[in-house]
Amino acid sequence: MKNNDSKLVVVTGATRGLGRAMSQKLIQMGHMVAGCGRSTDGINEMNELNGPNHTFRALDVSNDSSVYDWAREIIGENGAPDVILNNAALANSPAPLWKVPCSEFSEIVDVNIKGVANIIRHFVPAMIKRGSGVIVNFSSGWGRTPSPEVAPYCTTKWAVEGLSKSLAQELPGGLATVAYSPGMIDTDMLRNYFGSGAASHPEPAVWAEEAVPFLLGIGPEHNGQSL
Ligand SMILES: NC(=O)c1ccc[n+]([C@@H]2O[C@H](COP(=O)([O-])OP(=O)(O)OC[C@H]3O[C@@H](n4cnc5c(N)ncnc54)[C@H](OP(=O)(O)O)[C@@H]3O)[C@@H](O)[C@H]2O)c1
Predict the structure, then answer these.
(1) 189 CA to middle of ligand 1, Å?
(2) Which residues in the chain show pLDDT less than 70?
(3) pLDDT value for 5
């Protein structure tokens, strides 16, 4: 149960990388986190680490009915989230587009675009009813500039930019959504693209020290922006 001073923050992809680091920083700052990820081991570890005041659930954001059940439970117990960090995503194995199997392309679209929309579909109505809330949709540098061998990922992150700008025009006053490019951080995803070169970028926990206060500072005045 959150107290009056703390925010309820929904974090997708909380088992590893940026989502895990943001969750830990938010909890350290006194906020309540409801996080998800697919890995049961990762979720069990987050629950054990953070105790009963926070809740981590194993689910796939591309599964609309799982997201519906999760949203009902979180909203039923705690009310509407104050902030959604729509962070979960997959990267493609680097390859020219014509060599990317159909199944891989579909999975990336399902998680990176439809997963973002599923979270919005089931959490945002309660935020609208309350009249406040911020939805941060994780984009990328590759949501704004192209590169070879990342077409599936690039496609989805450009989509996140468009989805966010369109949603921004639909939200009532008091709410905001942004597309957010986090920079380059040494996670599994960056290693997928840059190998050991990823180590020259900050670790997630170091990045989260500045990123989380920045994200909590987003408000209605930022609605529709690419940050
Ligand atoms: N790292 C960077 O430099 C960088 C740069 C630009 C943008 N970004 C963006 O920042 C966000 C986080 O990236 P990251 O580097 O932290 O990636 P990461 O290390 O690969 O972590 C991705 C997280 O998403 C979860 N996830 C993946 N598919 C999921 C699904 N279907 N349902 C629920 N959870 C799922 C993963 O957990 P499970 O495996 O347990 O599901 C994991 O917790 C992404 O949106 C990414 O595109 C990152």
Answers:
(1) 7
(2) 1-4
(3) 78
Rounded to an integer, what is the distance from CA 36 to the centroid of its chain?
A: 10
Does 153 qualify as catalytic in the annotation? yes
Q: Is 60 in the pocket of ligand 1 (CB under 6 A)?
A: yes
190 CB under 6 A from ligand 1? yes
**What order do you get walking across the sheet with 55-58 strand by strand?**
55-58, 32-37, 8-12, 83-86, 133-138, 175-180
CA of 186 to the centre of ligand 1 (A): 12
Q: How many Å apart are CA 155 and CA 177, to the nearest integer?
A: 20
Tell me what pLDDT residue 122 has: 98
* β-bridge mates for residue 220, sequence order: none
The overall pTM is greater than 0.85: yes
By CB atoms closer than 10 A (0-12, 13-18, 19+), residue 132 is: middle
Q: What structural domains does the chain harbor?
A: 8-222 (3.40.50.720)
